[in-house]
Every structure is written in structure tokens, then in C-alpha cells.
Write a structure and sequence with these properties.
By secondary structure, this protein is an alpha+beta fold. The chain has two domains: about 140 residues, 2-Layer Sandwich (Fructose-1,6-Bisphosphatase, Chain A, domain 1); about 110 residues, 3-Layer(aba) Sandwich (D-Maltodextrin-Binding Protein, domain 2). The protein is about 30% helix and about 30% strand. It has seven helices and 15 strands. An eight-stranded mixed β-sheet has the order 4-3-5-6-7-8-9-10, with helices on both faces. Helix 5 packs parallel to helix 6. The longest helix has 20 residues. The chain binds magnesium ion.
Length: about 250
């Protein structure tokens, strides 16, 4: 496991370095159709290729563009080479890289790491051993004096998030893994994607980071989020700092 964690960190740093060097005007060029049936953009492809080179055959790989690579290993490295691709190619400085290491399901993820490329912040979690931001332990917010929710709105949202916009303070940031990390670090109190549109590559690392920081992650039906590590599955995601926040959100939706 330690070796795989080192590989994940090495991949993150290599992608980060390369993306910073790249011509940002090329980020949005469509290269091909990915395993998920959506166009693969230049930035996603470059980032994925770097990670695949570094991971090699040390683990099985589940990645956003290439799909599943079975190397006959015990562990799967779940990779979102760029979280928040649209932000990256429009020059909105909120995008990152997300890597998780597990076996079969979201619940058996043992390690997760998410790096915010523009700020350099690194969020990490080790199963049963806590969540960290730049090496310092983090916990979800228990201070409800200024509640902030990150909601998915516009065409990516639906009536469940639209109904919440008048409650508390709202942000919509466009990078699921990083938004989940903001719940974990106590910056915000919830992240909600109401549609079944996110894949395990988007939320595998974020789920562990939120849970290890003392929060919980549900789907839009209020069920604890746990799905197999399979790219064909799409899910809604509701990451919350506490049960109290979950109740406020569900009360606001009804
Ligand atoms: Mg992505």
C-alpha cells in the first residue's frame, strides 16, 4: 500500500508540473471520445497519460478517459486526471487532480488524494487515520453561524438544488472532488450534485476525505453513498459536515 501511495503522489506532482507548463489555449481542444462516451479534451488526455506512465502495471487502473485497465493486481487506482476540466480551459482557477486507492467499492477506499492545481493545496485521507490539508489534520465545520453550501446549479442542477438557493450562502464552483474537500476542511458545510451524473472517478477520493474529516457522503435520496468501482455507474452526491446539515438540506428540498 505504501508503494501505491507514493505512486499516487508522484503522479499528482507530475501532472501538476506538466499542466503548469502547458499552453492554456490548447486545454479545450477535443482529442477523441473517452470511455465514458464524452469528448476527451487535450488537458484530460495529457494528464491521464502522465499518470498511466507512472502507475504502469503496479495496480489496476480506473480512469475517466481510458476506462478500466486490469493488470491482475489486488488494488485499483481510481483516477480523475483533471477535476473541473471546464474551469481549467476557461481559465477559472479552481481545478485539480483526484486519485483514490481501493479494491472494489467506495467504502473500501484506503487512501485518497486531491490536489488543487492553481493553489497547490493537497488534501489527503487515510482510512481510519484522518484527513489532512497540506499535512495538517482537518475536520468538518461545527460552526453553523455562517452556513455555506456548494450547489450544482444551471443545467447540471435540478429542482432539488434550485430550491435551496435562497437558504444560507451559496457557491457553485464546478469541480466535485475539490468541492468535497472544502466540506472536509470546514470551508463549507455541504456539497450537493442532485443528478445521477457523477462517476466514481469524480468522488472516490473525496468520499474518503470527507468521511475521515468527520463528515458523511450520501446520494440525493439520503442513502450512504457506496457503489462499486465501475465507470458505468453514475450517482448523485451529497457531502455534508453533519447530520444537522443533512436535515437542513433535506428540509429545504421538501
Ligand atoms: Mg475529469
Amino acid at each position: 500500500m505504501d508503494k501505491l501511495i507514493d505512486i499516487a503522489k508522484e503522479a499528482i506532482e507530475a501532472i501538476d508540473k506538466r499542466i503548469k507548463k502547458e499552453d492554456k489555449n490548447k486545454f479545450g481542444i477535443e482529442i477523441e471520445i473517452g470511455a465514458d462516451g464524452t469528448p476527451t479534451l487535450y488537458i484530460d488526455k495529457v494528464a491521464e497519460e502522465i499518470a498511466l506512465d507512472i502507475i504502469g502495471k503496479e495496480a489496476n487502473i480506473l480512469s475517466e478517459e481510458i476506462g478500466y485497465i486490469d493488470n491482475g493486481k489486488e488494488y485499483i487506482i481510481v483516477l480523475d486526471p483533471i477535476d473541473g476540466t471546464r474551469n481549467a480551459f476557461h481559465g477559472i482557477p479552481f481545478y485539480g487532480i483526484s486519485i483514490a486507492i481501493g479494491r472494489k467499492n467506495i467504502e473500501d477506499i484506503e487512501y485518497g488524494i486531491v490536489k488543487n492545481i492553481p493553489t497547490g493545496d493537497v488534501y489527503e485521507a487515510f482510512k481510519d487515520d484522518g484527513a489532512f490539508l497540506n499535512g495538517k489534520r482537518i475536520e468538518v465545520s461545527k460552526d453553523y453561524s455562517d452556513i455555506i453550501y456548494c450547489l450544482t446549479l444551471g443545467e447540471s442542477g435540478n429542482e432539488k438544488t434550485w430550491k435551496l438557493v435562497e437558504l444560507h450562502t451559496i457557491r457553485a464552483m464546478g469541480a466535485a472532488a475539490l468541492e468535497m474537500c472544502l466540506v472536509a476542511s470546514g470551508a463549507i458545510h455541504a456539497y450537493f450534485m442532485p443528478k445521477e451524473s457523477l462517476r466514481v472517478t469524480d468522488f472516490a477520493a473525496g468520499c474518503l476525505i470527507v468521511r475521515e474529516a468527520g463528515g458523511e457522503v450520501y446520494n440525493a435520496n439520503g442513502e450512504i453513498l457506496n457503489v462499486p468501482l465501475n465507470l458505468n455507474i453514475r450517482s448523485s452526491v451529497l457531502a455534508v459536515a453533519s447530520n444537522e446539515i443533512l436535515k437542513k438540506l433535506i428540509g429545504g428540498v421538501k
